[in-house]
Amino acid sequence: MDQRAVAEESLSGVVAGTLLRSPEATAGVVVLSGSSGRVDVGRARLFANMGVSALALRWFGGQGQIPGICEIPLEIFFAATDRLVGLGCRRIVYVGTSKGAEAALLVAAHDPRIDAVVAISPTSVVWGNIGPGADGVSWPERSSWTLKGLPFPFVPTDPNWKASCVDGLVSYRGLFEHCLTAFKEEAGKAAIPVEDISATVMLVAGGDDALWPSLGFARSIVRRRQDAGKATRLVSGPGAGHRPRSSSHAHGGNDRADADLGRVAWRYIRELL
Questions:
Q1: Average pLDDT across the chain, whole number
Q2: Strands of 7-11's sheet, edge to edge?
Q3: Organism's domain of life (predicted)?
Q4: Most buried residue, 43, 127, 209, 245, by most Cβ within 10 Å?
Q5: CA 125 – CA 155 distance, rounded (Å)
Q6: What confidence tens digit (pLDDT) does each residue in 178-206 have?
């Protein structure tokens, strides 16, 4: 694909971010980053160079948007799908990482137009907000997502949890594991309805994820979809950590293990397109 043929457009409004439009593309990818709020133009460009149209979506923290991941309307993602469909894309793929993977799975469970989902370092349940909502307030804890104005059930966090450290950085994996056990009833209600996803689902998870137990979450998704008669591809590496990395908390893994998992995952992602 001639990279010069890819048209780049900055978007604002309901659908914000960067659109990389490939001529005559019949497939479109929505790229969702995690809690950093980064608009992942780099990953979107990889897809665009393969001949698809790619939308690196800014879904919070932008002008006129909710400042944190707090009661984010799923309708934002439906509008992103509308945008790609309007460009003539007949195949829609969502690629989300970490908190973006949570969004991608939840959106796919409520939008049958999505043909495939790639959830990198995923969760199997909805968690509470990260940062402030539209009112500028972070506490008391609320759901990360809403649909038609109604918040989704979520697993609360324990404010009395004592943090552990890995290489001098805080590891939050223990917090998420603790909360799943401490709030079992809430966790059951907060399960992402992956059984309802008609799209092809691919999960990428590292066994040494120090942020949250993404491999355990991924295996739970696989089991529940299998019980519903639906297949799921799980690509994992026992020594790989959480992607993307962060300088503020532990992510686990190492460069080699992370790169090895990334290469294998990329091969399967290309097949989905």
A1: 91
A2: 7-11, 16-21, 53-58, 27-32, 91-97, 116-120, 200-206, 233-237
A3: Bacteria
A4: 209
A5: 7
A6: 999 999 999 999 999 999 999 999 999 99
C-alpha to C-alpha distance for 115 and 67, rounded to whole angstroms: 30
Following DSSP, what letter does each residue of the chain receive, concatenated? --GGG-EEEEE-SSSEEEEEE-TT--EEEEEE--TT----HHHHHHHHTTTSEEEEEE-SSSTTS-SSBSSEETHHHHHHHHHHHHTT--EEEEEEETHHHHHHHHHHTT-TT--EEEEES--SB-BB-BS--TTS---S--BSEEETTEEPP-B---TTPPPEEETTEEE-HHHHHHHHHHTHHHHHHTB--GGG--SEEEEEEETT-SSS-HHHHHHHHHHHHHHTT---EEEEETT---SS--SSB---S-HHHHHHHHHHHHHHHHHH-
> What CATH code would you report for 3-272?
3.40.50.1820
User: pTM (2 decimals)?
Assistant: 0.93
Residues 215-268 have pLDDT tens digits of: 999 999 999 999 999 999 999 988 786 765 444 554 555 777 778 888 889 999
- Residue 175 CB partners (closer than 8 Å, separation 6+): 157, 158, 161, 163
How do the domains of the chain map onto residue ranges? Answer: 3-272
